[in-house]
């Protein structure tokens, strides 16, 4: 048996051609035509041959592959299926993720693919990190009940209502995750806590918006061609959110179309299409003026480095003693569309980058109404710039 083992060398593994190559003792290296490879262990259990993947050659060295093969051959000699045993050990390990903090982190990892940018901004996890984990993170989740949750969230239930609501919703996901791992948890504990916490006094309020008839007067005050004035003017003309606008790069503009990368669109999950924004003549004039002030291709740079902050435009409106805020111009545009035009609902919602219809409907509707939106934004630009008669 000794002579049959360790036939390969680290160097030969790199230079082998495509095919299946034996190292001995049931350990094989499957080399693909593209140069990649996979370690596979062949064993026989109860008269049945089993092939067990041990990982790719990129991640697992020849030395480690031999160690793994020896471990699982020993299991097979006990007439135990090594593949089933490995799965059993994984399940046992998962059951040891018992602290609420560990469960929350594991639940977050399993949902990253569903979140915008894989959740890198941290917004999904932040309510738990700030308001739940400091108090309950080291407690086994099986021991956490509705009283614990109520006592943890009650200090912010009314004062930070939206954050508290998000924290409770995330906790509910964590409890379901723990139950899926086989832990003995009360999956209804978060909902019971919600009942104990009662109705929130705080009511969500919309961001103040400027009535669309007042927009031209405000637009006319943005006349000094500074970065802030130019950014606000383009924000008003296009109806986009401030995030994509602040990070507007010259490479995103082709002709009279500004293409916002899909990952920059709020609320978009996974792989999403880019969003095209038609630019009116007025908007193109602003783009040309902004190019003179650009830095590293970004049209709206800050004074020192990077791009203007999210608060820059808001502070300008505050100093003007206006109740409305920059984000509210999206509502101004939407109200103008509803009251001053006969735009179909789907086109109006697409104007703001909103998702329209269900998944099946969207799969069959391939248009983004670009030309219809171009015409509408041209009309909006005339209204905003005071060029209507």
From TrEMBL:
Keyword annotations of the record: DNA integration, DNA recombination, DNA-binding
CDD domains found in the cross-reference section: INT_P4_C
Residue span, Tyr recombinase domain: 205-377
PROSITE patterns from the UniProt entry: TYR_RECOMBINASE
Gene Ontology MF annotations: DNA binding
InterPro entries: DNA_brk_join_enz, Integrase-like_cat_sf, Integrase_catalytic, Integrase_DNA-bd_sf, Integrase_DNA_bind_dom, Integrase_recombinase_N, Phage_int_M, Phage_Integrase
One Pfam family named in its UniProt record: Arm-DNA-bind_3
Family: Belongs to the 'phage' integrase family.
Protein's name in the database: Integrase arm-type DNA-binding domain-containing protein
